[in-house]
Amino acid sequence: VNIPSDSKTHDADDHHGPARASGGGEGTIRLLHERASLRDFTDEPITEETMGRLLTAGTHSATGGNLQPYSIIVIRDAERRRKMSEWCEQSFMAKAPVHLLFCLDLRRLERWAELEGAPFTARASLQHFWIGFQDTIICAQSICTAADAIGMGSVYIGTVIDFVGPTRELFSLPRGVMPVVLLCLGYPRVVPKPRKKLEQAVVAHEEVYRDLPDDELLAAFEAKYEGVRVEATEERLKTLGDVCRETGGEALAARALETVRRRGHINAAQRLFGLHYRADQAEREKKPLLEAIEEAGFRWFR
Ligand SMILES: Cc1cc2nc3c(=O)[nH]c(=O)nc-3n(C[C@H](O)[C@H](O)[C@H](O)COP(=O)(O)O)c2cc1C
């Protein structure tokens, strides 16, 4: 194997790993344990220097084959941020001084291959989608963590996938570049509190997968969503009933409404999948997204 002339080899003496030996580990662990999404930003701008440091944290992330099949659009323009906020119907977004639009980008690699006389079919490859999507998010998450580490904060905005066409137009994204997620970035007006999560023992399995017994599973979610009791208004009951009927038939609708009657409220699972991330919309939402992906030049799911 040829070692490229610009790559250095490390021996045990000259490489101790970043921050590993410097006692910074505890701080990093605490940072990760205490992080939370930020939706309340001050007006403080982000300097070019800080932005550069954050973006470099992103580009140093792990990426399949070291291909880096992503691009990040740095959005400072107030009008563009306002537009994204309006489309996503999330008003707090406009206050964040910077939006970062993370895109899966196979165009740059395709142009490189073309210029170098190399073959390239990644825009039709499910494997390249699978890995490239992960690469894009891992890069984004490194930037989130770097931002948290210097007293900033961020929140992901997933709803951009409902506006792929207009978003591609607003940021002049060519074919081969697909928006994945947006990140609002800035300084906290109030530092957000960590949210409850499922415990480590619930999500981690020793050696092999183990289904939790029903009562343990219910207790785990009850601990996470403790206190979520949605008032059973006529309108919500109708929506819940309709969604259950469409996805699971009359029997599910009857069971859902009977559960609500017995408990006197709509529970967390019913709120999440019956009212918020509505189970009946899965099929309706699929078609426009698949079309937007094809319009952006990808045949991953054909
Ligand atoms: C892929 C993805 C999409 C998200 N989309 C939104 C969004 O559109 N709006 C929003 O306010 N939060 C969004 N979030 C943030 C989540 O709501 C948040 O991470 C979750 O409630 C857990 O809270 P925490 O981040 O404070 O732990 C998103 C997070 C992820 C990872």
Describe the structure.
- The chain is of the alpha+beta class and 302 residues long.
- The chain has helices at residues 25-34, 48-59, 78-88, 107-115, 126-149, 164-170, 200-203, 214-224, 234-263, 268-276, 282-295, and strands at 70-75, 98-105, 153-157, 177-186.
- The chain has a four-stranded antiparallel sheet with strand order 1-2-4-3, with helices on both faces.
- The longest helix has 30 residues, at 234-263.
- The radius of gyration is 23 Å and the shape is globular.
- The two termini are 37 Å apart.
- 21% of the residues are buried.
- Residues 1-17 have low confidence and may be disordered.
- Flavin mononucleotide binds next to strand 3.
SSE topology:
Layout: H1 25-34, H2 48-59, E1 70-75, H3 78-88, E2 98-105, H4 107-115, H5 126-149, E3 153-157, H6 164-170, E4 177-186, H7 200-203, H8 214-224, H9 234-263, H10 268-276, H11 282-295
Antiparallel strand pairs: 1-2, 2-4, 3-4
The structure holds flavin mononucleotide.
Please give the number of β-strands.
Answer: 4
The quaternary structure here is: single chain
Determine Rg (CA atoms, Å): 23 Å
Distance between the termini: 37 Å
Overall shape: it is: globular
Low-confidence stretches: 1-17
Query: Helix tally?
Result: 11
Sheet with the most strands: spatial strand order: 1-2-4-3
